[in-house]
Structure prediction request, 488 residues.
Amino acid sequence: MQLLDAYVSTTASVSARHKVVKDLPSTLAVDAASCALRRGDVRRAVELLEQGRTVIWTQMTRLRTPLDSLQTCSDHAVALREKFRDLSSLLDKPPANYTEGTPSVNVEAEEIWYRRLVEEWNRVVEEIRKIDGFSRFLLPPSFSDLQDAARDGPIIVLIASKLSCDAIIIPCMQPPTSIQLPTNFERLQNLVLALDEARQKEPNAKGHQRALDDVVGPVVEHLGAFAQSGSRIWWCPTSLFNFLPLHAAGEYYRKHGQLLSQLYISSYTPSLTALIQARRKHDKSPSVPFAAVGQNLPAGASFTLECVEPELELVRSLLPPSPTVSFTKITSVDATQSRALHALRDNTWVHFACHGTQNYEEPFKSAFLMRDQPLSLLDIAQMDLSRHEFAFLSACETAVGDIHTPDEVIHLAAGLQFAGVKSVVGTLWTVDDETVKHLVEAFYTNFCSDGKMNSKRAARALSRAVQSLACNKDIPLDQRIVFMHIGI
Prediction:
């Protein structure tokens, strides 16, 4: 795992790092974790997963690590802090975009320069680790560090390896529990394909629900020891599990006929570290800066999204008035890529209503489509959103991911969380206008019911909104379960 991290870190561009990861075995981390489980070392399995997954995101966030606590140390420590910050800033800048005719000597020179920067950065990190209290600075986290992710509810890590398929329940104070699941890698592959095919052909189909229940059922049978009914749980899926709507599991308690959503409030996290970082506290503005950005006819689109403009006004009407919320609305005529970027930068609460696309070949080109050009995942990844509270992504395919590198979790919703947004609502596939209209209204009605804004209430508000859709028989099953929550 350390060699993997070191190898990827010497590559300058995000797209080049993705190509490197794509060329490596996609099951490296899950296979290592599965081997640790076979030895009975559950804690080590969790550590290996955290070290070997979301490598690209981890390296990007590593360069933005705050070191304010070094300010009160010695002059040498302060000098190291400044050097770390300067080198990190250089490494975090996008590399030059060379045209096809650029001499190879220029490209090679930049690659050599970048590798030397990485080497110097590594030396500075080693020096920082010699300072009292910083011995584990930027080292892979231990299980005791990672267990803090479960402080508000248990984490369920799902491991899909060709060696075995397992679940690990991580509570906050108790030892982790591993469960061997009654499925295998091949059956999971078939389930992912079958669910996708069924969703496209018959949106109300429930024929494959039992196979999904076989995955979730054994987990829920153990959850009672760690979580009360009605409390929150977090799913951290790996490999093929990333492509299953785990929050929508059905009636695994056959005699009671209870759905998972009736017992627990499900959220997702791409990694344990991402959830821990999302809980970092920052000073908040007395007035919540909230931007609603809509684009109904982006560049190249063949039809207009008629629901976008009414949706922006609906969101405004359901939010608390000023001075609790300082509301900005950017309508389709003004929603360019640049304007959307500025709105995202300047407002710690955002709502996007537009076309969304997942680019399956180059996932960092996944984007929200604006009037002139796309607002891409790469654009978002290069932003510091560490003070941002909430994002609602009312767009298609914002939490899909890349089948070639599933454990890198490269999609718009995860990108916003890794950039710093604490709480994100996204979509697993395409979403239709009728679903959006009903769900957005139900969500914000629940979210802002007492006139206060708290990003930690998003998961519960979404759960209640989805349950309200279940009463509407005109909305097919695939649309009732399309929205999911990531983060705190």
